Amino acid sequence: MSVASPARAYAQPLDQQDGSPLLHLPSPMFPERKPGAVLAEGLRMSPKKLPDNKPSDDQSPGAPAPGPPFGHRPVMLEEVVGMFAGVPEGVVLDATVGGGGHALGLLRAFPQLRVVGLDQDGEAVAAAKSALAQFGARAVVVRARFDALGTILDELGVKLLSGAIFDLGVSSPQLDRPDRGFSYRFDGPLDMRMDRSQGLTAEGLVNESTQAQLATLFALHGETSFARRIAAAVVSARPLTTTQQLADVVSSAVPAAARRRGHPAKRVFQALRAAVNSELEVLPLALDAALERLAPGGRIVVMAYHSGEDRAVKQRLVYAATGGCNCPPGLPCVCGAVPTVRLLNRGARKPSAEELAANPRAESARLRAAEALPLVETRPR
Length: 381
Hints:
Layout: H1 6-11, H2 77-82, E1 90-94, H3 101-109, E2 113-119, H4 122-132, E3 139-143, H5 149-156, E4 161-167, H6 172-175, H7 202-208, H8 211-220, H9 227-237, H10 243-253, H11 256-259, H12 265-276, H13 279-293, E5 294-304, H14 307-322, E6 341-343, H15 353-358, E7 366-372
Parallel strand pairs: 1-2, 1-4, 2-3, 4-5
Antiparallel strand pairs: 5-7, 6-7
Helix pairs in contact: 8-9, 9-10, 13-14
């Protein structure tokens, strides 16, 4: 796969969707940080050798539903599993294994496939290991952030992938636990860490960032109209230590008419979560690494739950599908670009009405998928 120019990637505005390269976003919280430095921050646990043999925070108010930890309903399960029919025998990487729902569906449907699951949340790893234990050597679960996927697969001796799944965002068990701090619906500490062993929390960002940094962060995640007002209100109200405090401050900073369109804290919480977990920095890197590992005929399926994630996914898949071609649309390619995948659906697929009726939290899901081309295939002239 061609490597995009970092200079060109950084020139690409976040809200531009022309398919030009987007490697990863400079962090508005840490502008002095070198791009790619986040690669050194991935948490890993040394796995054993592999034998041969994620929605927006829009749930209804109320107490968390009872149930075991990570009793998560996988979003668009049938669509995801169906995408892997016919892929070559081998290993599918579930880069965000969560409670193991998608991995479980794959292992049941396709006996010729094995799964390597990654997750940086220790509770998710424990739940996935328990759920997938019935498959023995066909399933390996490792605690790691997905930008470490290359290192993990190398340690497992996996050179090529039959497929890869990225189910982005926050799982229901994470949202429903007030102590995790992901939801504005429940009062809890301002945490928002996927990996609770890392130092940076949402409380730290809210109370230590400048007003300009907060406004930039909120604007990147869709609060273009009120980002400055919200940032000013947050700074004036500091120190803030709980999710309810932050949600109230955000609500008070937004006009009543805007509040009627949905909870104004939704995008603010998404923005803070993304910054705490370096989500938009590491996602394009991880997608490129997974794409480069796909065997011919292997497939990648990605589900995003907000516009920033989906934009990054679209740009990386389009770049791979065009080989980074920069020739004028409608004219023959003369730049020598070579595509490495073909897109499997035009635009993003959405959950069915039946699924939304059973699982309203799936409403914001957007699924994109691509299939790796044979190595000898080149862009049509």
